[in-house]
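In response to reviewer comment 3 from the previous cycle, which asked for concrete evidence that the modeling workflow produces usable outputs, we include below a single protein chain processed end to end. The sequence was submitted unchanged, and the resulting structure tokens are shown without manual editing.
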Amino acid sequence: MNYLFVLGRDPELSLLELECYFEARNIDYKIIEYSNEVALVSLPKLDFSRLIKEIGGTIKIAEIFSDSGNLSEIEHSLNNMKIDIDKRLDYAISSYNSSLQDFIREILKERFRKEKIKVFYKKPARKTDRFLTPSEIINKKLIENGLDIVVYKNNIARTIVIFNPFEYQERDLKRPKKDFLKTTSLRIARILVNLSYSKEDSTLLDSFCGTGTILQEALLNNINVIGVDIDRKSVDHSNENLKWLKSTYNTSKKFSIYPGDSTSMSQIIKTKVDAIVTEPYMGPFLKNIPSRQESEFIASKLRPIYTGFLIEAHKLLKKNGKLVIIMPKFGDLLMDPLRLTDLFNIYRPRISVKLPIPYILKNSIIERYIYVLEPKQ
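The workflow returned the following structure tokens.
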């Protein structure tokens, strides 16, 4: 079967996440083609409700029911699409690189008129939005009680699952300890976990774990986790958050959090891990773009930390493990891990995405770049 994956705000990360997620689980897949907004993917039947919860970079997944450019065939497919609605139907259409949207609307209107079903076409609340947001689709119950159509070129699909922002918001706000100045977003944390090839029952290490955001998203994917942080307060907060997560979401996976320095963590952790995923300390808070001299000074303080961590990471990673790390760029100075040590190679994706991938936070002075590394043997 072919499906349309509507990608999130970081399309390169979203695409790479799909590749890594499917590869790690030996799922028979093919990313047939993609744009900055949509990926056309061949997949077997999966538990898509579970899939949309386990990945962080996809907005919705739609199952294709017509891929013909012939208007008569499209009309036939729309008229024979199964819709279990009696009297009223709310629906929406999102169209990418296609001119079929108006034609589809007219065919559906005529079909519903003949079937005596009242139809209501839903538009975004904000005029600046091209399509309904996930929260609008959920609030209007278009998946279970309505119809959400996705069109990409000649491919017409019906949305079967959608990313639920309310679940992320609830998890973010209700966890006991929060530090919004230091915390990686839940969505990006989930993507990073998947970039590491981590899967159910594997073990993931975060060497700068902070309040445990990356660890909690891994736990929810049924991954055992280990955290290390030099700050004792962060260790306590991470422990509290993960205890809350286990009791709230009823996961049986294990976690261990240790106070310690990432440059000597092999003295604490005695077993090898399947993956390391982390966003390290990125230097002092900056109000302005640093000069070259200031950038060099910051980098000189960070290099020993990063180099020591990379050496330890190589000791702890299994042979086929992955290291996913966010590295900072100060002005025009990028902290490239491959220049700090020769212990790793950069991951080479099958799709035409080049690493590292920039991840630029709004209003942030520091630019961030995401690396996926593999240990040299």
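The longest helix spans residues 292-316. We consider this sufficient to address the reviewer's concern, and the full set will be provided in the supplementary archive.
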